[in-house]
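Input chain follows. Return structure tokens only.
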Amino acid sequence: MSIVSAPSFITGRGHPDFDLRPADLREILSEALSTISPGSSVLAIVADRTRDDNTDTLFPLAAEILADHRIAQFDALIAQGTHAPMSYQEKRTKIGATGTAHVPGLGHIFDHDWADAEKLVTIGVLDAARVKEITGGLVDKSIELKVNQLLAPGVYDTVLIFGTTAPHEVAGFSGGAKYFFPGVAGPELTHATHWLGALATIEKVIGRVETPTRHMFEAAADFVPSRVISLSSVVTRDSGRLRTHALFCGDFRQAVRKAAEVSRHVHIKYTGRKYRRVVALLDSHYEDLWVGGKASYRLGPVIEEGGALIIFAPRLTAISETHGALIKRYGYAPLERIRELVSESQELQQNLCVAAHLAHVSFAGRRLANGTVVPRYSITLASAVDADTCRQVNLRYMNPHTFDRKDYEGDADTLVVEQAGRDLYLIEPLSD
């Protein structure tokens, strides 16, 4: 385990009603980065394009502060997990380096390739006993902790995590150590944590802070050999404008928990009831169902058994850029069926993050009188994905050109959700 002590401090501010301005953010960052010494080497871990966040504001501010500290090196690593890489311009846009914008001291922006063993390094092992303890017995195998080689001992003095906190299907809430695992990790922990999230069941994970997967991420992050400073934001977007409700910086455990307290007030909506049908107007930020599946597992809690979810996503062009073939081979199904498929398929055993995705999008099952488990609700996809592909993955198809939201508005048993996938919908607050 790392002998480098994580910062015990926490600084920042946040409230559901706050709208933090650049001057506020700079003040918080200045305090958070005040202990970084001249001549230091710093690596920023940054989310990819699938995360809508305020990195384009925070990153240039942090760069200016670090330049004033006369650090020697400032690079960025994209925490793309298993997602496809971004273009050069997309990466520049992500960190606020567009047009004539100047980011002082910026060195390289690196991609992360989770499947290239030559670009990974082992920083430790979570032994089987520790894994069993963390997961409450759901997983009992040791896990080798492989991460991007830039996190090897001696490469960087300090690692900054730029990330947002919001309800998440695998971690409970995103942010903090999750940007290491699976953000810049190898396949071992990526598969293990996604499958753990599925086994723990999405209804017991999403919207909760203290989850087995969160504890697994954090136990693994303790092995990172550099000092880690987490910059955890809470943001929302309204009419195109991004609003920052909170920024907490410092220890990755404390920062994400402070941020989650704000997130649960701005990212969780309460309906007081379930609906027979939910129409999800998918947020345009999602380009495939690998991430656009959030429309199902963030709305599933308010859909009745035997009900229906319609996902309208005309910009969505694929099931998954990376995992599409596997998803087509096995299809979406409740966890009970996916567990059977995993036990029968070595291919799925080696791709547990895909298996978890299949169960997550299906959300949950319901048992018929004959004992058969079927999806709790049907999912219809109205997108650029063709009818045959929908059939292959166990989804219903709707021609997006025939979709008209007016057909559903005004129906008391139908909930129409704008920017679906951004917020979690629950009937009532969760009990811890």
